[in-house]
Amino acid sequence: WQIDTGLQVRAFSIGTPMQCNExxxxxxxxxxxxxxxxxxxxxxxxxxxxxxxxxxxxxxDSMAEITCxxxxxxxGKASNVKxxxxxxxxxxxxxxxxxxxxxxxxxxxxxxxxxxxxxxxMCWLEEENLLAVGQ
Length: 135
Prior knowledge:
This protein is mainly β. It has strands at 23-28, 34-39, 44-48, 54-59, 66-74, 81-88, 92-98, 104-106, 109-112, 121-125, 130-134. It has a five-stranded mixed beta sheet with strand order 1-2-3-4-8, with no helix packed on it. A four-stranded antiparallel beta sheet has the order 5-6-7-9, with no helix packed on it. The chain is globular and about 40 Å long. The model has no long low-confidence stretch (mean pLDDT 89).
């Protein structure tokens, strides 16, 4: 949607009519060429924004709803260390290397927050190299 005019710029659907893929989190990657999508079924996918083609599936070991996805440049703009992170009702922060090596890429790190409540927000503080989550 274009914020100034309220007009829809682009739309595409995920999955098939037989699948129930409720989108619960979205974010553009750092280049604004890929769309990171989290679903109510605990799935995280990378789509080509221009074509709508699904490029990768990032594997979580939980079927809990994803509430936040983020692409971050770890170490600042001079660094080539990019990560994709996702979290949600599982209370775990999943971390993947970016770009993924495989079409179906398992998380290379899982951070157990120890929270009792679902994680509903997340932000990346680049200057501090810090990821903050909120329940």
